[in-house]
Amino acid sequence: MRFTSWMILVFVAICVCASVVYAHICHSIFRTPGLLAVRPEKDVATLRETDTFKVYAQNNYIAPLSKVTLTANTKDEGIQVSISPEMVERLRPGERTEFTVTIDTKDKQARDLDLDFAIDARELRMRPVQQPTDKELRDVLKRTYLCGKVYAAEVLASRGREDGEDFLKRAIRRDPTLRKMRVSVPHHNAGRAACLVGRMGHKKMAPYLRERYKLEESTWIRGNIIIGLAQLAFEEDQQIFAEALNDADQFVKTCALLAMAIRNDSKAQEKLKPMLVAPELPVRIAAAWGRGIVKDEEAIAMLHSIVDSKGGFDRSIKNMVPDLPGDDSGGWGNYLPRAMAGEALLYLAGRNL
């Protein structure tokens, strides 16, 4: 599957004083879920004849990205740029890599120079845009895959745009009008939207998540709402987590333990250990997420194995978990666990810096 995304540009403004070239490396890089995040190791590169620095990249998408490349573009023939390695074969969710960039000045003539770095992967479509406008994001809401729409809505919501917040709310409640065929939003999109609201810190959405938790019948979505609320860190939600420990569904119970582990509850951490071998895969994923907070190697390896497994909408591939009631078109049993394991790895990458 290909995902519509935006190319990330790192602008390097180079100006010369005498024989020294100063390169300013901008940190205000467009960083949105679903893309590769990029950060240079320093603000300024000082060039007399050559300079070398590193550019770091992190997979901010819930699925692995392959054939990751960093390229540089300059129209100035007096500058030569080399990048190593030429390609990184694979990056799991939350995984980081680094590229070594060497800039050589063939001459020492004073001039202003723009050097544009672009990052890409096989699953992404490169476009020469640093940061999408609201209009471009709203175009995505109209015409791309639902998963891409969720991310576009998140960016709009982060800018305080009401239509972005409204879209996320509709995704969480599985509003069928969001899809052309007027069938309900798949559970993995709804659960991911709830987790995304938490991971990106949209505290304004907390009341809506609480409301949906009370009304929601799907245990998958209720569990993911608990995880989203845990990341928003409101003290009042501790009561929801405590009550969820008595829920009839094992997945919801485990998500409650995970929520407490996110809030540094050591007793909840211990209770998650036996859940790593539970018969239900979603329960094991929730437990592995929580155990990953304390860097449990077995738990993290489990999450890696799930995101690395073959997925996609293919009826010839046996689903990891049964389709949930209401997933009208079927075949989503590979997406649910992979989406949740990817979210777990992204959360752990941010927490365990």
Q: Find the CATH topology of the largest domain.
A: Leucine-rich Repeat Variant
Number of strands: 10
Q: Could you say which overall geometry the principal axes of the C-alpha atoms support?
A: globular
Structurally, the number of domains stands at 2
**Which CATH C-level class of the largest domain is it?**
Mainly Alpha
Known CATH architecture of the largest domain: Alpha Horseshoe
**C-alpha Rg (nearest Å):** 22 Å
Strand order of the largest sheet: 4-2-1-10-6-8
Largest sheet, described in full? 6 strands, antiparallel
Helix share, percent = 25-40%
Strand pairing plus helix content: what structural class?
Answer: alpha+beta
Count of alpha/pi helices: 12
Percentage of residues in DSSP E strands:
15-25%
Low-confidence stretches: 1-34
Short description:
With 353 residues, the protein is α+β, with helices and mostly antiparallel strands. It has helices at residues 134-143, 146-158, 162-172, 187-199, 206-215, 219-232, 238-244, 250-262, 266-272, 281-292, 297-308, 335-351; strands at 8-17, 20-25, 36-40, 44-47, 50-59, 65-73, 79-84, 88-91, 96-105, 113-120.
Can you characterise this structure?
The chain has 353 residues and is an alpha+beta fold. The chain has two domains: 9-120, Sandwich (Immunoglobulin-like), CATH 2.60.40; 134-351, Alpha Horseshoe (Leucine-rich Repeat Variant). Helices cover 39% and strands 20% of the residues. The protein has twelve helices and ten strands. Strands 4-2-1-10-6-8 form a six-stranded antiparallel sheet, with no helix packed on it. Strands 3-5-9-7 form a four-stranded antiparallel sheet, with no helix packed on it. The protein is globular, with a radius of gyration of 22 Å. The chain starts with 7 loop residues before the first strand and ends with a helix.
